[in-house]
UniProtKB/TrEMBL annotation:
Coiled coil stretches, renumbered: none
Designated name of the protein: Glycosyltransferase RgtA/B/C/D-like domain-containing protein
Secretion signal, residue range per the UniProt entry: none
Organism in which the protein naturally occurs: Engelhardtia mirabilis
Residue ranges of the TM segments: 52-73, 85-108, 211-234, 246-263, 269-288, 295-321, 341-362, 391-414, 420-438, 480-499
Keywords tagged on the record: Membrane, Transmembrane, Transmembrane helix
Keyword Transmembrane: yes
Length: 502
């Protein structure tokens, strides 16, 4: 196996063959097992679309072409000599492309266009339900709501009762902004109607303020999520990648299927935040930093991590995986295990823990909320689903939604007999993912729940070592970038066309 996949050219051909075969199977629904072991309840299986998309296809193709061009240009060695401003501008262009692709893919769902899909999903009680709770009487007084959160949690709609209150507070704040600004409310409602939003045929009419805050919330989520290319590039660079390779990785982030398809969700919003946390950790633990720099970077990482934990109980796991990748990279580059790596990591963890308890100042009991949410999660999902089935299907879901070509390239890297920075990062991620999978904490919807892990797969599969005199992974770089970007774009479109997501 090492000899077979030792060449980047051969590994890329293998990635292309596997991806094309998989997408052909998806298009023909060769077996329902491609979508999961069994439908809900109690297991999980992605739905199958029957109607041909009426909107968004042309836009998805156009933005894919734009992003492919940006990826190919970003992978050029010329960027190693370019200034920081040029690189930032390139990644901002990729962020715009990310926003365009995501909205176009959303428009391919059943509906009257992207705006209609975004508003209906945000208003839905079954999609995430955060907005539903945010505009309810329970959340009218945020302080009282937070103080009673663990008491209210078991009776909240599906997703809201298995997560911390951060997403609900987010939508409540936007709803308050809309209701206090009639002009903003009218503008958002008008934009929703112009964008194709239609009232449901059944049920009471939706209040204008609810429509306005739903659209505003979805737009904010998409705007923040579109910054993932910059954050992922920063993480890759902090791990030791060359500037051109980090920029190419950043641009490719926009084409990772899970990030582009699962919209509008808080998982999307968390991706750039979590990547920023682990990029700060990687910078703090890298060789060549003085103590003051390490403490400042670690403190910043911990503070932002605390915000992430208020929005997701899974955030500590995602940050731990990225933190281990950062530690592996720093140790491979000569950082001292104790003072350079362990100490900044411990400081960041302490600051994050402090941030976890800060909401107690307004009456929220994070420990009680965590216990209640974990109890709901265990009762409704974990205990009812097959451990053995999901040990396999979680990894399959991750392989599909992180991007089959990236999965093949990561496996190729793991099968080579090589050491150094790239191998350390790849093996750290692989072992972390295996342990997480074997823990049985997640059983179903890994393609959505593990979205924050998908940029790690991208980084581990493609990272190079800036210090290397000869970098085998960079050979045939331009063909690799073209093929990878095209395969990822095709995966996004085919999955949206044939599967009902999320």
């Amino acid at each position: 196996m090492p000899r077979v996949l030792s060449s980047p050219r051969v590994a890329t051909i293998a990635a292309a063959a596997v991806t094309v075969a998989l997408l052909a199977a998806v298009a023909g629904d060769a077996t329902p097992l491609l979508r999961g072991p069994a439908p809900w309840p109690p297991e999980w299986q992605w739905g199958l679309r029957e109607a041909t998309p009426e909107h968004g296809v042309a836009g998805a193709v156009l933005w894919s072409v734009v992003l492919i061009a940006l990826v190919v240009g970003a992978g050029s060695a010329r960027l190693d000599r370019a200034g920081r401003l040029v690189v930032t501008g390139w990644l901002l262009a990729a962020s715009i492309g990310s926003l365009g692709l995501t909205t176009s893919l959303a428009a391919m769902e059943d509906g009257h266009g992207a705006v209609d899909v975004l508003v209906r999903r945000t208003l839905s009680k079954g999609f995430t339900s955060y907005h539903t709770v945010a505009v309810s009487e329970d959340a009218r007084d945020v302080g009282v709501f937070l103080a009673r959160f663990d008491e209210l949690l078991p009776d909240l709609p599906t997703h809201a009762r298995a997560h911390p209150p951060g997403p609900i507070v987010f939508y409540r704040a936007l709803h308050g902004l809309v209701t206090s600004s009639p002009g903003l409310e009218r503008a958002l409602v008008a934009r929703g109607e112009a964008g194709g939003y239609r009232e449901p045929l059944r049920g009471p009419p939706t209040q204008d303020a609810h429509v306005a805050s739903a659209l505003l919330g979805a737009l904010v989520l998409l705007a923040v999520a579109s910054l993932a290319p910059l954050a992922c590039a920063a993480f890759a660079r902090a791990l030791g990648a060359s500037r051109s390779r980090a920029t190419g990785i950043g641009a490719l982030t926009a084409l990772v299927p899970g990030l582009a398809l699962m919209t509008p969700t808080f998982d999307q919003l968390l991706v750039p935040l979590l990547l920023t946390v682990v990029a700060l950790l990687a910078t703090a633990t890298a060789p060549g930093r003085n103590a003051a720099q390490r403490w400042a970077l670690a403190t910043s990482a911990g503070a932002l991590a605390g915000v992430c934990v208020f929005c997701s109980f899974g955030a500590p796991i995602f940050m731990a995986v990225g933190g281990l990748m950062a530690a592996a990279s720093s140790l491979a580059r000569g950082s001292r295990p104790g003072r350079d790596v362990a100490a900044p990591m411990a400081l960041a963890a302490a600051v994050c823990a402090l941030g976890f308890f800060v909401p107690m100042l307004v009456g929220y009991d994070p420990i009680a909320g965590l216990r209640a949410a974990l109890g709901v999660h265990a009762e409704e999902f974990t205990s009812r689903r097959s451990y053995g089935a999901w040990v396999l299907f979680n990894l399959w879901d991750l392989f599909v939604f992180a991007g089959p070509p990236l999965g093949v390239l990561l496996i190729a890297r793991l099968t080579r007999r090589e050491g150094g920075l790239a191998a350390s990062v790849a093996w750290t991620l692989a072992i972390s993912l295996l342990l997480l999978d074997l823990s049985g904490v997640v059983r179903g919807e890994a393609g959505r729940i593990w979205v924050p892990l998908m940029p790690y797969v991208l980084v581990a599969a493609l990272i190079d070592d800036e210090r290397a005199e000869r970098n085998p992974a960079a050979e045939c770089a331009r063909p690799v970038w073209v093929v990878l970007a095209a395969l990822l774009a095709l995966t996004c479109i085919v999955l949206r066309w044939h599967w009902r997501l999320p």
